[in-house]
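[job 4471] stage=fold_predict status=RUNNING
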Amino acid sequence: MEADTKETEETSFTIEPRIAVVGLGGAGCNVVSGFYKELAPVDTIAINTDKKALDETAADKKIYICKAVTKGEGTKGDARLGNKCARVHEDEIEKAIRGHDIVFLITGLGGGTGTGAASVVAEICNRNNIMTFTIGINPFSFEADCIQTAREGLRSIRAVCPNTFVIENDKILDLMPDATMKEAFRAVNRSIIGFVDETAERIASGIKVEILSIQKTGLMKEVAVDVPEIKISPGIKT
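[job 4471] inference complete, writing structure tokens
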């Protein structure tokens, strides 16, 4: 009976890491709005140079970057400018993410703000010892002007965030050939929400196992996380 009580005491606790989902640029902010509207148990942060798009984003916190330079009209696809804008606002961004255990960065690749700013935000997360994941959404193959920018941006992001995952827009059209663009983007939003939920759950479970191991052995090991795949569901919700 005593053994059963001890086991119950050891396992009757929950791990609830504080999670932030950060949307960068137009595509990232669109995904963040999805999290906010779904009432997901995360803090949502939207970062953009486009004032109108940011105003239309639903998020717990909005960070309007480089208004003095872009005049609220975005970076016009200039990833270098997006990077510089994020660096100008590093202190404000750091204040918003500080205190979180896990951060998921969401950005479209090939544009200016998200492509350029994502690596800066990942660096800030690294400085604060925050477990960070980046989800980049690649442009369609017919968006030829964006492809090279997307490749260069992805290279910069992966240099500072090894846990970087890419969604291919072309594959979405393959899975949903008859869907409208709005329906396809909605499917992407749902897949990212599912990925974040499952990843956070696996991390929390791994931490709990490690705490129990420390209680029993007094030894601490690095928490191993089996990260799930991002799966696009062709099912359409209206």
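[job 4471] summary: Residues 181-217 form the longest helix (37 residues).
[job 4471] exit 0
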